[in-house]
């Protein structure tokens, strides 16, 4: 029994000009075309009792885009004809993805991500210590620290938990609508927070609206960079992540000046207008490049936790985030309660930490591209733990010399913790294909968000138990960083062995 391949809507017996499967053309009969196709795509035939269906699969070549970012894709369109043998050619493998590693378009995406992260992290997350110190002594002066801490924990929880769905949607649909919706939620949250006077007002505007907006912006902003960089991904991601640290410098200083002269409402509204401008840039510049993964779904997949390296990496990030936001949120209150310098210094100490974080976001990224991402994370996590024990703890218990120790803590912890945000996505990206990056990153942070939700309330409860003494809070944060360091070290040695110079 003979089998025939044909183009759609063309009689099988009619000679025709057929495109070669790799871009050329040939003339001849349908049988000659069969030989060419069979040489490129071997077929498997079966006939059960002479009555099986014939599955004729028509090879359709899409015209390639002249853009270097587009890749030729082949589709196999199937039609079924009763009463013949079944023919099933295998699908041609997709070519391996390539990366520009630079160029105008790639760096514009980095700048767009920078602007987006400056907006979503600058005011609500990295300047969170200023917001916490103000509302806990003004609008929410009657609430205990644990209740106020829940507002910030819920915000951080939504910022990362919502990535469970956002990451896979980015993989399947791209970043454009996600960034736009995130901008709407974040700006609505900023202006709603400006008018907030009661606890539930802050819960809706800050915790829910701003948290959802941050998630919709942050996940695509980070994921889009991975479409343009592989070898230099750590450096490019770190450079974009400096937006958050610059926001953490600018917004505390802006609020310090505006709160006394204009009050809460207009200080937050002016900050909201700054964010609106930044988000316009993000909407214009953030784009994806690689096509969606064939057969990709927008649903998360927890089966990837069967991969041990991914599961342990998720545990490492969980412990890290469990402790990270405690100093960021309570540092200003700690300075005020410890009577270190003036009230202005309590605002400035957070700006010093974020200024140091600027260098801690891109320098470790540059280093990670040379000695390995997990190796760099082990070094930075160890440095965070040492900063807490060597500088923050003595500054808390010392009777004098608190100010120099506080500044040293802000500088060292700020630099080391900068990599906590910038290198984590790169480490996760080393464990998967780039087409699945959004799914892996979102699945990781779905678990991590539980730590973000509980970390600050636990810290607030510890502070209440110790009657305002920060020693227990420092011990909790140090233990989190120690556990995270061990987990990152496990993955590093599983990937690179005991060779200290192995790049992994």
Describe the structure.
The chain is mainly alpha-helical and 504 residues long. Helix content is 65%, strand content 5%. A two-stranded antiparallel sheet has the order 1-2. The chain has a two-stranded antiparallel ribbon with strand order 3-6. A two-stranded antiparallel sheet has the order 4-5.
Topology (elements, then pairings):
Blueprint: E1 18-19, E2 25-26, H1 30-40, E3 45-46, E4 54-61, E5 74-81, E6 86-87, H2 104-122, H3 128-135, H4 145-161, H5 163-173, H6 176-194, H7 199-225, H8 233-262, H9 264-285, H10 308-337, H11 343-371, H12 373-397, H13 402-422, H14 424-429, H15 437-465, H16 471-496
Antiparallel strand pairs: 1-2, 3-6, 4-5
Q: What overall form do the CA principal axes indicate?
A: globular
Query: pLDDT under 50 segments (min length 5)?
Result: 1-93
Largest sheet: 2 strands, antiparallel
Task: Specify the number of helices.
Answer: 16
- Total E-strand runs: 6
Name the quaternary structure.
single chain
Straight-line distance between termini: 56 Å
Percentage of residues in DSSP E strands: under 5%
Class by alpha and beta content: mainly alpha
